[in-house]
């Protein structure tokens, strides 16, 4: 017979929720920082291109970003299915989402 200890399950859920919240907050903060850096870099490219200093092939640049986005979507589905299978995964996912949206 399998013994289920509600206390240890609650502890695992709470610990993983806290850890997920911290990681979610960190991921969103890093993502915002990266977005600002990329935005500034694109503005610099536009400025240099408008002054004739640099010639940028914007079609090739955007094509690379689209390919990266498609690869990221493929990996996200696999990661979601693995994390959501255990009580630790449920706590982690809820904490991650809470931390991500509160950032």
UniProtKB/TrEMBL annotation:
Q: Mind telling me which GO cellular component terms the entry cites? A: membrane
Alphabetically ordered keywords of this record: Membrane, Transmembrane, Transmembrane helix
Q: What is its main location?
A: membrane
InterPro entries attached to this UniProt entry: FUN14
Q: Name one Pfam family in it.
A: FUN14
Annotated compartments: Membrane
Task: Indicate the family of this protein.
Answer: Belongs to the FUN14 family.
Kindly provide the name given to this protein in its UniProt entry.
FUN14 family protein
Per the UniProt entry, what species is this protein from, by scientific name?
Halostagnicola larsenii XH-48
Question: What lineage does UniProt assign to this protein's organism?
Answer: Archaea, Methanobacteriati, Methanobacteriota, Stenosarchaea group, Halobacteria
């Amino acid at each position: 017979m399998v013994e289920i200890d509600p206390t240890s399950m609650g502890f695992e859920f709470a610990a993983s929720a806290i850890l997920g919240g911290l990681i979610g907050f960190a991921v969103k903060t890093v993502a915002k920082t990266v977005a600002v850096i990329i935005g500034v870099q694109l503005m610099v490219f536009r400025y240099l291109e408008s002054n004739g200093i640099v010639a940028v092939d914007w079609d090739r640049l955007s094509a690379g970003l689209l390919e990266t986005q498609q690869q990221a979507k493929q990996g996200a589905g696999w990661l979601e299915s693995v994390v959501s299978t255990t009580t630790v995964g449920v706590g982690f996912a809820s904490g991650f989402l809470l931390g991500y949206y509160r950032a």
